[in-house]
Structures are given as C-alpha cells and as structure tokens.
Amino acid sequence: MRLLEVDINARISFDNRMIFDRKHSYTDMRNRMVDTQIAARGIRNPLILNAMRNVERHRFVPEKLGWQAYSDYPLPLPGGQTISQPYIVAFMTDAVEPTENDRALEIGTGSGYQSAVLAELCKTVHSIEVQPELAEYACKNLAATGYTNVFVKHTDGYNGWKNEAPFDIIIVTCAAAEIPEPLTNQLANGGRMIIPVESSWCQELVLIKNKDGKLTRKHVLPVRFVPMISQNGIKY
Question: Alpha-carbon distance 41 to 49, whole Å?
C-alpha cells in the first residue's frame, strides 16, 4: 500500500511538471512567433507586439491543434472556417492603428482570436459571426480567457452592427466581391477599415479611411480568406 502511495505521488508530481513545462513551452512559442514571424516582417508597434504576446493563441484553436497554434500558417476551425496566420492578424491590426479609446467592429469572429487581440488594444470590440456554432465557440474561448470587453452576435456581417455604430475601427476577416456600403456607413470620422476584396483572380486587403466623410482606399496586400456569406450561405 505504501508503494502505491509513492507511485501516485510520483505521478502527480510528473503531471504538475508537465503542466508547468507546457505553459512555459507555449509562452516560448508565442514569443518566438512574435519575434520571427511578426517583428521580423516589419511590424514595429510595441503595443501590437505585446498584444500578440499576451493572447494565448493555443486557446483559440481545437485542442488537438494546440501545438501548431504558433506556426506560420492558418489552421482549420469548426464549420470549415480557419484561424488566420499570426502575421496576417498582426498586419491587419497594425494597419488600422488601434488606440485604447477606440471602438472596434469585427466581421467574422471565427474562434475569437482576432477579437482578443483587439480587446488588448481597444476600449470595446463588437464582433459578428454568421455561423452559430462558431459564434458559440468564440464566446466560450473569450470567456475562458477573461475578455469582458468583447461582444459577439450571431448574424449576417454584411450589414454590420448599426445599433452600436459608429466604429473607429472595422476589421473584416472574410472576403467580399465589393466593399459593403453598410460597413463604410458605420465608420466614424477618422475611422479605419481593412477588408479582403475579391476579384476574378485574386484577393487583396484594402485599407479604407474616413476623413470628414470622404473615403480613401489603398490596396495593401494580396491574401486568401474564406468568403463572406449570408445566413443562407450565399457569397457576397
């Protein structure tokens, strides 16, 4: 009986070391991700780099993919969706120049990872997800990681969130054939929006700025995103 107690205690000690080592491994992986994938590619804003270090990306992917969470590529999510490559999340966030008093709108919540990054940087984040299972998944992930300034709604993202407009920042994580007018109408004066826009042969991120009601557009990066769809599954 004494031997059994020793074995159990040894097992508990081993399990505790594994949990400690795993936490440190994820931290090391996250720091390496920021250093080699993001800062090395030109993202210099220390607030964004810190946000990317703070958000535990492995908690926003399916558990079996946790060890791939900090790799330099997107990962699959439930419902045939994906979580974007870490650099793309950082690039889009950097492009809209978030500040602590900004109110952000995200179209395409996914697992909630981009929402969490914005939550580190902005006052509030309103996020829309068209797939009910993903909206629920994101809410669980955000609650588990302690983000209380993110509000998720399951609906069609094309029309934005009119009751909460205007927004200082809009980030769209799904591609549309054209820039939705309801979204640009919800952009505050001085606001910034980034969206992947699809043509017949490619997608490009387009950065939009609103200055005194006049919109400027700049094509900034070729990308590949899932399409923006209606609740009936029709592509926009």
Answer: 12
Contact 208, 194 (CB under 8 A): yes
Q: Is 84 a catalytic residue?
A: yes
Q: At what angle do helices 86-95 and 113-121 cross, to 10 degrees?
A: 40
For helices 113-121 and 132-144, give the axis angle rounded to 10 degrees.
50
**Assigned CATH class of 2-223:** alpha beta
User: Which residue type occupies 221?
Assistant: L
Mean pLDDT per 10-residue segment, the chain (236 residues): 36 37 80 98 98 98 95 93 96 98 98 98 98 97 98 97 98 96 98 93 95 96 93 88
Q: 104 and 124 in contact (C-beta within 8 Å)?
A: yes
pTM: 0.89
Catalytic residue among 84, 111, 115, 127: 84
Residue 207's beta-bridge partner residues? 194, 218
Neighbours of 30 (CB within 10 A): 20
Q: Name the residue ranges covered by the structural domains of the chain.
A: 2-223
